[in-house]
Sequence to fold (189 residues):
Amino acid sequence: MKRRLSVFVSVIFLLVAAVFSLQQSCCAMAKNAEVQVEYLRHRIYARRFIDNYNIHVFQKAHEHAGLTFHRGITFTRPQGYTTEDNIRRESDAVGFGPAGMIRWERPISGKLYGDLEFSGSFLIYSKAFPAQGRPWGFMWRLGPRLTWKYTKNNSFSLGYMFSHSSNGMKTKNPGHHSFGFSIGFNHNF
Fold:
């Protein structure tokens, strides 16, 4: 467990370092970058005990009528097991894929803002996930977020997310739900 946590923290550090080490030529294309890191714990389904470690990297693409639209990529490391048919099946994989997010943001006071986020990701996994599933799937997330804009170009956020993951098939669809906290950092170039 300690090794997994250290690998997860190392990946987070490398992503944050990559965001801040972008050259000026890249900055002309990307006006901002947001990194969200989250741990989501399994809930609701009685026979699916799968926790998600997720990293989302987003860039604001468009703004309209109080909504912001973001594009990005999701990296996920789900771990756990299922007990369908009273048989324990390990359900560990690594996945990544494109993501999109819609955010509704309102000021609360001063530098504090309240957000409501919805995001979706199409993920390709390293193997069939969860057990008896397919090597691809979708992850949907929804939840509130508090954002503290502590400088003109930087903000820190904390959210509580609900997530549904499944492959969208009716016949073989071992989906699972999870809830947990999400920490985000946004930098404008």
About this structure: The radius of gyration is 17 Å. DSSP finds two helices and nine strands in the chain. The longest helix spans residues 2-20. The beta strands are 32-43, 48-64, 67-82, 89-90, 95-109, 112-129, 134-148, 154-166, 176-188.
